[in-house]
Design a protein that fits this description.
Three copies of one chain form a homotrimer.
Chain A: H1 26-42, E1 57-62, H2 67-79, E2 83-87, H3 100-109, E3 114-119, H4 124-131, E4 137-143, H5 149-163, E5 170-174, H6 181-192, E6 197-201, E7 217-219, H7 222-226, E8 231-234, H8 250-257, H9 261-264, E9 272-274, H10 287-290, H11 297-316
Parallel strand pairs in A: 1-2, 1-3, 3-4, 5-6, 5-8, 6-7, 8-9
C-alpha cells in the first residue's frame, strides 16, 4: 500500500516512484547515485545496453513538450533494453475530452510498466502515481513549478563526482528561484545530503525572503552570493517570465546576475559551474564561462543518462 | 493470388490480411481468439516479449490521427519483437502530392512486412492490400465508417471471456450505429459467431430501419433494447456529428440513451457493459456504470493488445 | 584529427563521416557499393536484422522535415540493431534559442554514436562533423542545394546493378539541375566512377552553362540530351521553385522536358529510367514510363536501404 506521507516509497522504504527529491531519505539518494556510477561505464562501452528492463513497456507521457528531456529518458530506457512508447499527448484522447485518470487507466490496462510524466500542473505525477495500477511505476520528468527530481539527482551526481563529499560545501543557485522546479529539487537534495550552506541568489521578485523556510540563505547581491562558493548552479532565464513590470529585463538581469569570469573569480579557485540547459549564452552565463575550465555543463548531460537509468532500474525492481 | 471475393484469405483459407470481420469464417475468428488467449499470459509475464516477429518491419500508416489505437498496435508489435516505424503521414510525401499507391509501393520496396492502416476513407486498406507486394500484410485499424476489425475482435474476446459461449446471448449495441465502424465490425462478428439476438438501439436518425438487413433487431426505445441483455456495448458519442438539425443534442441523447444504473438494471443480473473508449462520462455512460461491477471496459483494453498480437502473428505466418 | 581537405576520411583514408560524394576516392565508393550488396540479401531474409550496430545510439536530426528520407534511415539503422532516436527538431531546444552547436554538444554528451542530419542550409552537416566529439559519426541526409550523398550512392548502386560497368556509359540527368543536391551528388559520383559522358538537360534558367565546370555536357534540348543514353535520371520538379518570371510553368516544363515514351525511345534500347522520388506523374515523367519496363524507380528504393546500412556500418567501424 502507498504510504500517505511518502508515496514514493513502499512499506520497506524502497523507491517505487520518483516524484520529488523532497522527503527522500539520504540512503535512497545514495543508492541512486551509486547505481548511476555503474551505468556510467555502460554508456562508455561499445555495446551500450544492459537487459535490466527487457520486455518492459515504458511510456513517455509528455503533456508539456520537451524534446530534450524526453530524449534523455528515451535513451536511458533503450539502453536498459525497454520498449519505449512516445505518446503525443497534445494530439491524443485527452484532446478528445478524456480525463487524465482515464488515460492513465487505459495505458495501465495495456500492461504499461512505467510512466515518465512531464506536466504543466504541479502535482500531476502524484495524482497519476496514486491512481495507477500497483505494477506501474511513475517518474516525474518535471511538473509545473514543483519538482524535476532527475535533474536534481544528476546535479547531485555531478557535485559528488567533482567534490567527493557534500559535508563541507557552499552551493550557490542563481536566477529565478521561485519559479524553478530545478532549484526546488536541488535544494531538497542538497539539504538532505548534508550541504551546510545553500545560497539562493537573484532579485527580490524572483528570490523572496520566505524561501528561507527551505533552509537556504537568501542573497540579492551576486558578489556576496558567489563569494567562496564551491558550486555555482546557474538557472535558465525563462524569457517569457521576464515581462512583468516588477521583473528585470533579460539585459538588466544579465548585467546584475549573469555569470561572468569576474564574478566567477569570487568563488573558490576550484569551483564548478553547472546549468540544467539549454543555456542562454550572454544572458545568465557568459560564453567564456560556459565553455571554460570550471564548467561541468556537458558532463551533467552525460551523468543525466546514467542517473535516469539508475532511477528506472531501481524502481522497476521494487514492488508496491 | 488474392481471391476477388475475400481478399483477406489465401487459397488455403488462411488469414493474410485483416480488413473486416465481414466474411471471416467462424474458424478464423476462433483461431484469432484462441491465439489471443495465449498472448494474454505473455502480457502478464516479467518479460513481455516473444520473438515471433523479430526482424520484421511493421509500419503504422495513420492517415487519420489516433494516438490511442496507434499505441495499442505499437505495443503489440514491439511485444512480438518487430521493428515498428511510425509514419507521420499528414506531413509526408502524400502531402507533396504523391498518390496513396505510390507511397505504398515505395514502402513495400523498403521490404516492409506489415502495414497497419487507419484511413478516413472507407475501403482504403482494401486498396492497399490489393496493390501491395505479396509479402506484405495489411491490418485495417479503422477505415471511414466501414470497419474496425481489431476492435470487433477484442469485443468478441471480452464476450467469450465473460460469457463463455455465444449461442445463447442477447447483445445490445447502443448509440450512433449508422456512422460506427465499431458497430459494423461487432455485428458481423457476432452474427458469424452465432449470437441469436443482436439489437441496435438509438434514435431513428442514427439507427435507421434498413440496418435490419444486417440481421439485427432495430430498437428506438432504450428500455426495450437493454431488457434482458447479456451484453451491452455503448458506442462513443461523436459530438462533432451531433450538430445536424435532425439529430439530438448530446444532453438529449444522454437523457434518452445514456446508460444509467436504472437502465442497466433492466438487463440480465450478470450483464456486462462494454465501450470501445475513450468514454464520455455522463454522456453515453454514467460514471457509476463505467466504474461499476458490470463494466469490462478496462479488460477490453488489455484484451485488445493480445488480440492485435494474435492477428499480427497469424497473418505474418501465412503466405499470399 | 580531421583533415581540412577531406573531413570525411581519417588519416588512413577510411570513411568516418558521409558528407558528400565529392572528393570520395573511387575505392571508398566501391567499398560502399560492395558492402550494400551484402546487405541487400539481409533485407530479403526472414529475419532482416544483423547485430552490427547493437547498443549504438543513432539520432535522426531532421531540421528540415522529410518523412520519407527519415524513414529509410530509421529502417536501415534498426536492421543494423541500433537504437534510433527521432528528434523533432522544429519543436526542440533550437526553437528555444539554443545554437546548433550547443544542441550537438549536448547530444554528444549523451554518448550518441551517429547523427543523421537533414538541414536546409548547405554545409550544416560539415559544421556538425567538425565540432562533434571524435566518437560521433555524421551522415548528411541532404543539406540545402549542396549534397544528398546517400541518394547519389544508391543511384550508383542501381546503375552498377543494371549496367555492370561505368566506363562505357552515357548518363543523362534531366530537370532543375542548379537547385538539385541529388544532381550534384550524382555528378560527383559518376565522374569519380569513370562515366565518360554525363549530360545535364533542362532550360537555361535551371541548367546554366557554367555547370560545365563540373565535367558535364550541358544540353537545352531534350531530344539531344537523351539520345543514345544508357541511363536517364529524372529529377523531381519542385513546383514551389517554378514561380519565378524566368522559369517555365510546370505544364510548359512537362511538355518540353517531361519523359514520355517517345522521348525515351531516343535512348538506348536497354536504357534504364531513374528518379529519386516522390514522382510527379504527368509532370517530369509520364505514368507509362514510371511504371514501364525501363523504370528502376522502385528498385532504387530497395537499394537505398542497403546503401544506408552499408554507410552506417562502415563509418561506425572506423575511428577518427
Amino acid at each position: 500500500m502507498l504510504s500517505r506521507r511518502n508515496p514514493q516509497l513502499n512499506a520497506h522504504g524502497e523507491l517505487i516512484h520518483l516524484l520529488s527529491t523532497e522527503g527522500l531519505p539520504r540512503e535512497v539518494l545514495a543508492q541512486i547515485l551509486d547505481t548511476a556510477g555503474t551505468f556510467l561505464s555502460v554508456n562508455e562501452r561499445e555495446v551500450k545496453k544492459v537487459p535490466l528492463l527487457r520486455g518492459k513497456s515504458v511510456f513517455n507521457l509528455f503533456f508539456e513538450n520537451s524534446t530534450r528531456t524526453r530524449t534523455t529518458f528515451e535513451i536511458a530506457a533503450k539502453r536498459l533494453s525497454a520498449d519505449v512508447i512516445n505518446l503525443d499527448i497534445a494530439r491524443s484522447s485527452t484532446a478528445k475530452g478524456e480525463s487524465l485518470l482515464d488515460t492513465i487507466a487505459n495505458l495501465s490496462a495495456m500492461h504499461a510498466d512505467m510512466f515518465i510524466v512531464r506536466h504543466g500542473e504541479s502535482g500531476a505525477p502524484y495524482l497519476i502515481a496514486s491512481h495507477c495500477a500497483p505494477h506501474v511505476h511513475v517518474v516525474n520528468a518535471g511538473d509545473g513549478r514543483h519538482a524535476h527530481p532527475t535533474q536534481g539527482l544528476l546535479d547531485m551526481y555531478a557535485i559528488r563526482h567533482y567534490k567527493g563529499d557534500f559535508s563541507q560545501l557552499t552551493v550557490a543557485i542563481v536566477g529565478d528561484i521561485v519559479h524553478s522546479r530545478v532549484a526546488r529539487s536541488d535544494i531538497h537534495a542538497l539539504t538532505t545530503l548534508g550541504v551546510p550552506e545553500v545560497r539562493v541568489i537573484g532579485p527580490r521578485t524572483l528570490v523572496p525572503g520566505d524561501l528561507r523556510a527551505m533552509g537556504v540563505r537568501v542573497c540579492h547581491d551576486m558578489a556576496e552570493g558567489v563569494s567562496g562558493a564551491d558550486v555555482i548552479i546557474m538557472l535558465r532565464l525563462q524569457n517569457e517570465r521576464m515581462s512583468g513590470a516588477m521583473l528585470p529585463s533579460a539585459a538588466e538581469f544579465a548585467k546584475t546576475f549573469g555569470l561572468t569570469p569576474e564574478k566567477l573569480a569570487l568563488a573558490k579557485a576550484d569551483a564548478i559551474v553547472m546549468h540544467p540547459g539549454p543555456i542562454n549564452r550572454g544572458v545568465e552565463i557568459d560564453s567564456s564561462v560556459a565553455d571554460g575550465r570550471a564548467s561541468v555543463i556537458l558532463p551533467q548531460v552525460t551523468f543525466g543518462i546514467a542517473v535516469r537509468m539508475a532511477v528506472m532500474s531501481i524502481i522497476a525492481g521494487n514492488e508496491a
